[in-house]
Amino acid sequence: MNEIVKTSAFIGAQPYSPDEFEAAIRAVGAERYHDKHPFHKMLHGGQLNKEQVRAWALNRYCYQEAVPRKDAAFMSRVHDRELRREWIHRIHDHDGLGEEGGGIERWLVLTDALGFSREYVTSRRGALPATKFAVEAYVRFVVEQPLVIAVASSLTELFAPAIHRERIAGMLANYDFVDDRVMAYFKRRLAQAPRDSEFALNYIKTNALTRAEQEGCIAAVRFKCDVLWAQLDALHYAYVTPGLVPPGAYRPGQATE
Ligand SMILES: O=C(O)c1cc(C(=O)O)c2c(n1)C(=O)C(=O)c1cc(C(=O)O)[nH]c1-2
Fold first, then answer.
1. Tens of pLDDT along 42-64?
2. pTM of the model
3. What are the chain's domains?
4. What is d(CA 1, CA 7) in angstroms, rounded to the nearest whole number?
5. Nearest Cα to 232, choosing from 37, 28, 63, 31?
6. ipTM metric
7. In a mutational test of the pocket of ligand 1, which residue from 32, 65, 67, 90 has the highest number of ligand atoms less than 8 Å from its CB?
8. Which residues does the UniProt record annotate as the domain Thiaminase-2/PQQC (predicted)?
């Protein structure tokens, strides 16, 4: 198993108090969450053209699709039935349950509105290489790391409601191809994400008790910020500047049927 922090550096070190620990987690978001990325500033500020928004939605589908897979991978390692009972709703939130189509269905409403066929989106064949590598790194991470560190990696969700609110308002105001129906995915997450992040935060405060475990959790949030940031770097490089689209990835204006 890869260690994400050098544990020996913290042997004998005083653990953080629960409040200090939470503050250290939140400080990672304040420094490196992807709300600070120039591509998001452009997306929310109406500075992208429709093709660039399409490329974002197409690539971001891969993240949506990876999240329930990483939750399933996580659950496969959990022996505590109570924790599995709590965690399973994350899969339902994305994949849906019964009549409820779930977050992936809502994401496909967005890509429908942007004119992509569902077959093209769900095949992921137009996604950027870096998108695919980044999202799979997240799935691998929860397979390889200790459970408490895997839980901590979901904690970027602490910072997600603010960016979702900014995105809903910004995209509705700035793009005529966006309406309430298309933004339904993010509206739903405003209620779902706080529940998930509150549970995960309590879980790590209760279960990461040594300084080394706590530092591992903080590093997990840094890692996850990297997963998110790398996806936006790749979008910026391919579709904003210098505009170099890798072979096989979606090209603006390309017929995708
Ligand atoms: O739009 C965003 O900026 C954003 C970020 C994140 C995140 O911070 O990982 C998630 C989501 N959205 C999201 O919609 C979502 O369902 C989600 C699940 C998870 C996770 O790590 O389990 N993160 C996120």
1. 999 999 999 999 999 999 999 99
2. 0.97
3. 15-239 (1.20.910.10)
4. 13
5. 37
6. 0.96
7. 67
8. 24-233
